[in-house]
Design a protein that fits this description.
single chain, 70 residues, 3-stranded antiparallel beta sheet, 16% strand, globular, MerR family transcriptional regulator
Amino acid sequence: MPKIFEDDRTYVLGDPELNFIGNREKLAQWRHRCMGPAYYKLGRKVVYHGRDLNAWANANRTDPSAGEAV
């Protein structure tokens, strides 16, 4: 499976790569609803690990040729 994010990199809010999965507000909504990718809360800073982002993206993969509905 191709990697979207660098596994060994940490991403913080404001990094343009995070806009690939959602804007700042969408990520905040997901955190509030306990949805979305895993994250760390370090004080007031939210940090995402690339490996967690890739795992989340792979878990949400849909293959239309397999007959999976969205």
